[in-house]
Design a protein that fits this description.
This protein is mostly helical and 230 residues long. The protein has helices at residues 6-63, 71-81, 86-101, 105-118, 125-138, 142-147, 158-171, 175-188, 198-228. The longest helix has 58 residues, at 6-63.
Length: 230
């Protein structure tokens, strides 16, 4: 039980309120503003994503048609109107594929680089890297492909990356390194287990290495025989 009279308690409450009341009111107002602001932004974001999804449905509809002439236009619309969504990334992939089919590899490179520039932290960015590496190899820019094929073992992409790396190294004539990359891909063996030509490529390069080793081993003997014949 307090020894203070009711009047003294009221006076203390008045003093406390004078010192603390205003900050409490401001804090409450700011807290409510933050809550309603967050709620508004969340609803706005949901509406934005729903609009992007609706427009992207028109892209998927085009994929089911025999005549896909409108696919590029609709994919570009998603990318232009909702550039910061995953739908824009998927649309860029469609645009890159269309470009590859039209043999416009520079355009495909541009689309995939757009993904890597604007969505580098997206879960879909590694897919853009792998596709871009393949196109660089097709453009005879295998060195550039190698620059973007570094994936950690736990990334989930190291197996495919090793396979593409093998293709890049083979294109550069670095067969021993290509063989190593192919064997790495084979050892991981999940995605590449049923690869139609991986085993053939490994056998081809392995046989090439054996033949090269045999030729190298015979070189000193041949040189001695040539010297003896003089």
């Amino acid at each position: 039980m307090s020894n203070l009279t009711e009047e003294q308690q009221i006076e203390q409450l008045k003093d406390w309120w004078k010192d603390n009341g205003t900050p409490l009111i401001i804090g409450a107002v700011l807290g409510l503003s933050g809550f309603f602001g967050w709620k508004y932004m969340t609803e706005k974001e949901v509406a934005y994503q729903e609009s992007a999804s609706t427009l992207y449905v028109s892209v998927t509809d085009e994929l089911e048609k025999e005549d896909k002439s409108q696919l590029g236009e609709k994919a570009q619309a998603v990318k232009d109107q909702y550039p910061d969504t995953s739908y824009a990334i998927m649309s860029a992939f469609h645009l890159a594929k269309i470009a590859v089919e039209a043999k416009d590899l520079d355009k495909a490179v541009s689309e995939l680089n757009w993904v890597l520039t604007n969505h580098k932290d997206s879960d879909l960015a590694p897919i853009a890297q792998l596709r871009l590496a393949r196109i660089y190899i097709a453009q005879q820019k295998a060195e550039k492909a190698l620059e973007i094929l570094s994936f950690s073992d736990d990334s989930g992409y190291s197996e495919i990356a090793s396979l593409i790396k093998g293709n890049a190294l083979k294109a550069l004539g670095r067969n021993a390194e290509a063989l190593e990359a192919y064997r790495t891909a084979e050892s991981l063996g999940k995605v590449t287990a049923n690869h139609p030509t991986l085993k053939l490529m490994i056998d081809e390069l392995a046989n090439s290495e054996i033949s090269l080793s045999d030729e190298t081993a015979n070189e000193p003997q041949n040189a001695e025989n040539e010297g003896a014949g003089k």
